[in-house]
Amino acid sequence: xxxxxxxxxxxxxxxxxxxxxxxxxxxxxxxxxxxxxxxxxxxxxxxxxxxxxxxxxxxxxxxxxxxxxxxxxxxxxxxxxxxxxxxxxxxxxxxxxxxxxxxxxxxxxxxxxxxxxxxxxxxxxxxxxxxxxxxxxxxxxxxxxxxxxxxxxxxxxxxxxxxxxxxxxxxxxxxxxxxxxxxxxxxx
Length: 188
Ligand SMILES: [Fe+2]
Prior knowledge:
Elements: H1 2-18, H2 23-39, H3 44-54, H4 58-63, H5 70-83, H6 89-100, H7 111-125, H8 127-139, H9 144-159, H10 165-187
Fe (ii) ion is lined by residues 54-55, 58, 70, 102-103.
């Protein structure tokens, strides 16, 4: 359990330092990762460690203007972090797969990776996260129209990642509602 405490600590430190991912979105998807791991009988520790590591370097990548490299940067940091623990190769590989597959760049090699990727979708399609995300874009001094466009872009991007039936069932109605609300807001 020590690994979970440590990984959470470094993930929260990065959030504190860079503001990314926004804490409220991190919390929404973390809760979902835990819930899905329990419901689907996956290894909760692997899923949560993978979750905490998957966007570890998101803030740093954004600061350096290379957001699209955050998966690779997080994967590198994850490998270094995992070296400190006496884990078997299989466990380590599963955790790395959670990081590397969370945007669909590589296939899911374990249930825990699919859980992380699907939980990540909640950061943009769950109503609590969607409204919180709009607030964070406001704080980043994005105008309303630009924020709406970006939030909708994330809605569509993340919707495509959904693969677990349980998540599709929960998020599809929110996705449709939010798309409709965004369209109405834009047209007014
Ligand atoms: Fe990410």
